[in-house]
Amino acid sequence: MGLENLFLGFQIAFTPFNLFIAVLGITLGTVIGVLPGLGGANGVAILLPLTFTMPPTSAIILLTSIYWGALFGGAITSVLFNIPGEPWSVATTFDGYPLARQGQGGQALTAAFTSSFVGALFSIVLITFFAPLLAEIALKFGPPEFFAIQLLTFSSFVGLGGGNPLKSLVSILLGFILATVGLDIVTGQLRLTFGFTDLMKGFDFIVAVIGLFGIGEILLSVEEGLQFRGATTRMNLRVVLDTWKILPRYWRTFVRGSVIGFWMGFKPGGATPASFMSYAFAKRFSRHPERFGKGELEGIVAPETAAHAAGVAAMLPMITLGIPGSPTAAVMLGGLIIWGLQPGPMLFKENPDFVWGLIASMYTGNVIGVLMVLAFVPFFAAILKIPFAILTPLIVVVCAIGSYAVHNSMIDIWYMLVFGVIGYVFKKLDYPLAPLVLALVLGDLAENALRQSLIMSQGSLAIFVTRPIAGVITALAVFFFALPLLTPWWRRLRGVPSPPPVPRET
Amino acid sequence: MRAADLVTAGALMLVAGVVIVDAARLGIGWGTDGPKSGFFPFWLALLMGAVSAVTFGRALARRRQRPFVSRAQLGPVLKVIWPAAALVVVTQFVGLYVASALYTGFYMRWIGRHRWGTVVGLSVGIAVAAFLLFEKWFLVPMPKGPLEAWLGH
Fold it and tell me: How far, in Å, CA of A331 to CA of A335, rounded?
């Protein structure tokens, strides 16, 4: 069914230029993933302005390759430096760092990269088959359905994101409010500008991402002192091959992790819970649960497989529905709009070469990625040996350049700094940043969907409940919004103790 | 943490208030062709204000625990923030490349105590590399100042 399309995609992904772009993206992405303060989301945001003049397919291949690279790079810092680059790498540090301390860093990294690859591949295969079907269904959606899906997206942050649900809700609302600043294109009126011309352009999500995730992250990490520290590793072909001989033993963990990752991952905010859930399951079913936390290889396989399956699955709603499943996917969605593409189900009809080139590049990108990181780990790990006093100003300058490049305006660099401080404060007070960014990106789309729905129904909110598909989705969204209220009640009823808190998704 | 929670929730309620006032100016009801401009922001802000009020109340009811940021933590954080702010201010006068060279150099000498030779070499080298990368290769113009003008850019 989709195979001839996939073949077409591979013809695009395998052109020398696109392969070069993939290698470049993975190199940059891994460096970005290793560097503190630069993760997938703001790495993609900083480089987005450089893609404005590229063909869209090459541009998306560059950005997704950066994403894969950043995911692999995060594993390097978790294992060698005990610094989880991303929240979903937290579970990887439990057994990864002890292994590295015991001199088994090479084995730990090989297991981490291989698991990431397996998890990613599983999700890509599912995307290949499910994406066209989902897009086909989504083609029948009208504005009420799209608004209901937006509700569902944000409700899962409140219901499943962990942490304080009220603060999650505030982050979402603040993101939507920031999105309304500037010119209202429907009525032509200026909103929330208070006579300042600088506010007329509104707040660009790229600048917000760079500030919140980049500058904010640096401020958080320097609290422990102005330096980075870590362990060393030896990595060679022998270690890789020896580890690969052991890994098939954990096939059950691979399967379980992939399924958990994909299932949790295509809903927003799913990667972190997926990695923890997979780790907990692996420990539960293991014959040696006491070894977990002290350097058990299976304790790396489980969370890494799930986290990457989830990271890739986050792309599924982005290409089929136009709803990103993660902050990085949100930045890519913003890119799609800038390159002149309409995100959503029409992509499969109007730009099949783009969609299938993207899907095919997921296969090539991950194959290239796993081989590159396995080969060049010592090089990437050496980046963290650069003295703090050189690395930090360099990251700040790169962030400033990225913010300025969006609109060639100085005010954006100031916004970046302000967002950096907001990011620092919010993160310390447990206000999640991911829903804020998603709301900022989706604000206009959500408002338009709401307006069109209300015009269809002459102002009645009942339209979100009475149309069958919208009704089901809205009901599900309401359920997720209410979940934080229902859970304690349900637990008391059954006498189940509350589980330990899971660190929330950024 | 309690004080920071109170201040943040208070600030968010203030923002909500400002948004509601502006939404009321634009009209929050039904216009000739659908909801008016203030409709969406009004409900968002109303909800955000209400939720923040709950957060505020909860923080108020809580007893004081560890501080939001300890004195030992605040030092390094400020040592990142104010040089970065200085970078932006200086950029407005001399352009991004010169400002980033000054900034990197200052930081390397002040925090890292690197030798002067390393400081000058690296900071100038990074600025020149950035110039070549963005102005020449990617053709993304950055703010430029008198030095670039003197050099003919």
Answer: 6
Handedness of CA A260, A264, A270, A273 (dihedral sign): negative
Burial class (CB in 10 A: 0-12, 13-18, 19+), A39: buried
Instruction: Give residues 420 to 449 of A whose Cβ lies within 8 Å of B.
Output: 420-421, 424-426, 428-429, 431, 447
Domain residue ranges in chain B: 2-61, 74-150
- Nearest CB among B1, B54, B112 relative to A389 is that of B112
Any A CB within 8 A of B36 CB: yes
Residues near A504 by Cβ (< 8 Å), separated by ≥ 6?
Answer: A87, A161, A162, A163, A269, A272, A430, A432
Q: What is the ipTM of this complex?
A: 0.94
Place of tokens 């948004």: B19
Q: Does A222 touch chain B (CB under 8 A)?
A: yes
The distance of A144 to chain B (nearest Cα, Å) reads 15
Q: Could you give the CA distance from residue A84 to residue A70 in angstroms, rounded to a whole number?
A: 12
Instruction: Give me the pLDDT at residue A36, please.
Output: 67
DSSP A67-108: HHHHHHHHHHHHHHHS--SSGGGHHHHHHHHHHHHTT-HHHH
Distance from CA of B141 to the nearest CA of A (A): 7
Closest CA to A483 of A64, A155, A133, A96: A155
Local structure of B144: helix, strand or coil: strand
Bridge partners, A309 (sequence order) = none
Q: What is the pTM of this model?
A: 0.86
- What are A437-447's pLDDT values in tens digits? 888 888 888 89
- Where in chain A are the domains? 3-488
Residue partners of A157: CB distance under 8 A and separation at least 6:
A168, A171, A172, A268, A269, A432, A434, A435, A438
Q: Which of A179-193, B20-34, B91-105 has the highest mean pLDDT?
A: B91-105
User: Tokens 């920071």 belong to which residue?
Assistant: B4
Asked whether B23 and B42 are in contact (CB, 8 A), the reply is yes
